[in-house]
Write the structure tokens for this entry.
Amino acid sequence: MKKIWGTALALTLTAALTACGSSGSNSATTANGTNSGTAGDNGKSGAPKELVISTWGFSEDFFKEAVYAPFEKEHNVKIVVEIGNNAERLNKIRQGSSNVDVIYLSDYYAQQGINEGLIDTIDTAKVPNLEHVYDIAKAPLGEGYGPAYTIGRLGIAYNPALVKGEITSWKDLWTAFDRNLTLPAITATAGPMMVDAASVVAGSTDFNEDQAFAKLKEINPSVIKYYSQTSEYVNMFSQEEIAGGPIMEMYFKDLQAAVPDAKFVAPSEGAFAVMNTINVVKGTDNKELAEEFINWQLSKEVQEKSAKAKVDSPVNTEVVLNEEEAKGVTYGADVVGKLRKLDMKFVNDNIKAWTDRWNKEIGG
């Protein structure tokens, strides 16, 4: 059986998340910025060139001010932003109804784009900031394709007053919760991660589908709800309908605001890497400019601002955060090096069968 994860991922320390983006309306807007010169040469004459970026609808003001505007000014570019969730935006490219040059997607959806020939490779020589990025983020979907510009982690959050003992392992989901657990639905970003976690808990070194689903059926009686949206988790946790369950670290602050004693842990077997990628769309007339933008997104300047604003966890190893700035952020070689990474090609090849089996055997 094919292995779909790796632990203790190798890092190049001298080399330079959420998730899962929020859904928004499928609209195009122009980013802030005053421009002069010609695109790509930092010149001072000519009309600005248009760069169309497809992304999520979260933290729009931050991206306009900290990411888009400086790039526009430097390169004499007018950035046009198309907003929507992963599926909506990828479908627009499939249908040829969008002139997108650069697209932000979760690794799961980016892999679909690669499989369908919608994503172009990049010239890594045009993206020198890749040298300052963790190895896991450089080419998460294969050599030549775009990097992850942020990495989050899926661990376990819980209310200590409502569980049996301390949570330290994925195995504890099966023993420490008594009909007060939530798990992600199979169709959620973290759904396939729970299939893998169940295989690990079953004792499999390599992924074993049958053992994974046997463990998922075993835990099913303790699950109050299989959540599809993080807001569902937060509401249930705040009202103490659940004691906890797997969640992305970036949302833990919302849980702690409601339950100050709440804890977040990276399980001993490894938390799961949740990666958002940035790629060039095949057929763009602005490929070189798109590569320059990707390089800018990976720069220490942008990565540091994003991390300190709690917008995205950094992949640039030159970013330095103090203890307060690092709270709620997936940060540091020691943290990133312990993450488990799913093989998204394998996940995409099997997700339909897993979903059908989940619906028949689990039902959540």
The radius of gyration is 21 Å. The longest strand covers residues 148-158. Residues 1-27, 32-44 have pLDDT under 50 and may be disordered.
